[in-house]
Amino acid sequence: MSIKDIEERESQLSAMYDGELPQAECELVARRLSRDENLRRSWENYALIGAAMRSEQMAGHRLAPKVAAAISRRETAESGASGRSTRSSRAWSRWAVPLGSAGLAASIAVIGVLGMFWLGGGASNPVANKTETATASTVKEIVIPAVPQDRTIVVASASPASRARVADVTRAKPAASSNAEPESYVTPPLREGGVASAAPAFELAGYVGAHSAVSAPMMRHSAISAVIATPQQAVAVVPMSEAPR
Amino acid sequence: MSTPRRQRIVQRWRIAFVVALVAPVAALADDAREWLEGMNSALAEKSYEGTFFHERGGVSESLRIHHRIRKGEVAERLVSLDGSGREFIRLGDELSYVLPDQRTILIERRPRTGGLLPSFPRFDDRTARFYRLEPVQRARFNDRDARLVTLVPLDPYRYGFRVWIDSRTKLPLKSELYDRRGQVLERIAFASLQVSRDIPDSTFMPGVSTEGFRRIESDRSVRVRTVNDPGAIWNLRTAPRGFRLTQRARQTLPGAEEPVSHLVLSDGLASVSVFIGARLPPKSAKEIAIERQIGASTAFSTFIHGHHVVVVGEVPVQTAKLIASELSPEEPGKPQSPAEPERPSEPVNP
């Protein structure tokens, strides 16, 4: 693949992420995503970086409409084309594409959840009211109704302490029977080396505080002011124990 | 008159001419440096309180600051007066963020032995090679007599700086950080500022009740290592021009299980902190680099040899990236390779 092709695909991903890609092209990209592992990784990275840079409270909201619709259509089309499954050696290949699509949707949802924690859930943070000294938090049964629009995706017991890879999530089997579209999607238990590791721990408040102690007196109030400024305008403050790693 | 004599006279006139040209410039530069040093001393030694506006990207936020020096110990409290009501409190070695919007307190305790606090960047002759000091201008700000000191960056590795220094107290009334194109990135302007003889302890308590808040604390037991400690095994192959490694330590951040290595670089004005976390399990770290702006500071996060690395400093992002790219682990016990062309300074934490 030439550099120009790569640039073009990156540009398409970017436009798709921002919801600015025409519907037809969205479908093309969705097809590519469903069969191209590298591109899918690119997308995951892009989604994470985009979420971080834009300080979105929940990346999933932005991803939902066109992407979900495109993936959903793709799933339906592929599912119909693959026909009724038998126990042949080609069973996996028939599963691969729809699973890839569902997995992608799920991984986007997971990224959304983690993004929310990573970027600070504010008042909606489900662990915000705990009073004990935190070492690890557990997210239980968070339901994300956004992707795809007509279904529910459940992220089960996602604990930052136990990690799973995005790739593992994308390979998980759906809960529904093989000849029907899954009504819901449940991720497997998160395992060592997980999604979280895709998003580096980036607990800015701690780093900024530590840096302020060594910066020049006239510089040190700058970053701290930004950290404690109104959350919508500033960086999120997420303790390390809750930040995805 | 003999020829040698004439030559000597001509030579002396030449010297006098050069001195006449250069001396005022040198005096102006010294003047600017004196004002900067005076400001740094005032910030480090005086107790003061005030309200200021922090502007960045067209967004302005008002904050209040209380800063006290008592028996050499710093107490400081910054409070956001808009929206969240978040606070930052520094009491000696303890830093706290009070986050009413998250019902959380983050507490970082810096180890007492050989901590990093006593050493601040200092604008010296070396620093003057990387910034041009403009002639000091007399100015007026907020009905106060002030001096405007301007530092122009001479390369892309650092930002420029303008500061309006109160002529009486030497405290900064207003400051601007700007990039190489002259675009102002951040502005801090005091609406009110007064020097206080002493500020009561009660001022440094959180303004909101923190009952029921989560407390997330760091581990104080971590031993601080000095620049010569062979246990601190990360080093820089090279540093951006003008920056040198000045300090090195290990510390634990709030909520973290493992301590991080903390390297500090400075050009005498801007500082950069490099935090290197523990090595993560193989394949658990995706090679994702993320950059963020926090006020005028840059934060750059990446992975190097499986370690999570965060670079924070008042520098352009390319400087932060360059520093990250030059990090390398060394074998324990091996003598440090100098961060050429800027050699590390003498040990700062003997």
Please give a structural write-up.
- The complex is a heterodimer of chains A (245) and B (350).
- Chain A has 245 residues and is mainly alpha-helical.
- Chain A has one domain.
- Chain A has helices at 3-17, 23-35, 37-54, 59-82, 91-118, 166-171, 195-198, 204-212, 220-228, and strands spanning 142-144, 152-155, 184-186.
- Chain A has a three-stranded mixed β-sheet, covered by helices on one side.
- Chain A is globular and about 70 Å long.
- With 350 residues, chain B is mainly β.
- Chain B has helices at residues 3-45, 317-325; strands spanning 48-56, 59-70, 73-80, 87-91, 94-99, 104-109, 131-133, 137-141, 144-153, 160-166, 172-178, 184-195, 214-217, 234-236, 244-251, 260-266, 271-279, 290-294, 297-304, 307-313, 327-329.
- In chain B, strands 1, 2, 3, 4, 5, 6, 7, 8, 9, 10, 11, 12 and 13 form a 13-stranded mixed β-sheet that branches. Chain B has a six-stranded antiparallel β-sheet with strand order 15-16-17-20-19-18, with helices on one face.
- Chain B is globular and about 90 Å long.
- The chains are: A mainly alpha (245), B mainly beta (350).
- At the A-B interface, helix 3, helix 8 and helix 9 of A face helix 1, strand 2, strand 3, strand 4 and strand 5 of B.
Structure keywords:
heterodimer; A: 245 residues; mainly alpha; 3-stranded mixed β-sheet; 9 helices; 3 strands; 51% helix; globular; disordered C terminus; B: 350 residues; mainly beta; outer membrane lipoprotein receptor (LolB), chain A; Phosphorylase Kinase, domain 1; 2 domains; 13-stranded mixed β-sheet; 6-stranded antiparallel β-sheet; 2 helices; 21 strands; 15% helix
